[in-house]
Write a structure and sequence with these properties.
The protein has six helices and no strands. The chain is mainly alpha-helical and about 100 residues long.
Length: about 100
């Protein structure tokens, strides 16, 4: 419960750091090298969290792919949501 609340309130990167500090063995089993979690932390944090949640041994099977798609969708929505909100700022020039 505490982990999910921290992810919701502070974001996926804080959740990655917190989960890695609490369970570093799970992260070691999920990824073969150190580069993949670092790249996931920088570029696709929701997908990285979802991968560690559904594939603790690095194997993705069956419905795990659907959960990874949800994580990827979360990353895309997080990346694209900032530009639409700028139109709501008073004085922001709107170009159509």
């Amino acid at each position: 419960m505490c982990f999910f609340l921290s992810v919701i309130l502070l974001g996926p990167r804080f959740g990655i750091l917190l989960w890695w500090l609490v369970e570093p063995g799970r992260w070691d089993r999920a990824f073969d090298s150190f580069i993949w979690p670092v790249l996931g932390f920088i570029f696709l944090p929701w997908t990285t969290l979802m991968f560690v949640a559904v594939a603790p041994f690095g194997n993705v099977e069956g419905w795990d792919w659907a959960w990874l798609a949800v994580g990827l969708l979360g990353d895309f929505l997080a990346l694209s949501g900032g530009f639409a909100g700028r139109r709501q700022v008073p004085g922001y020039p709107v170009t159509y």
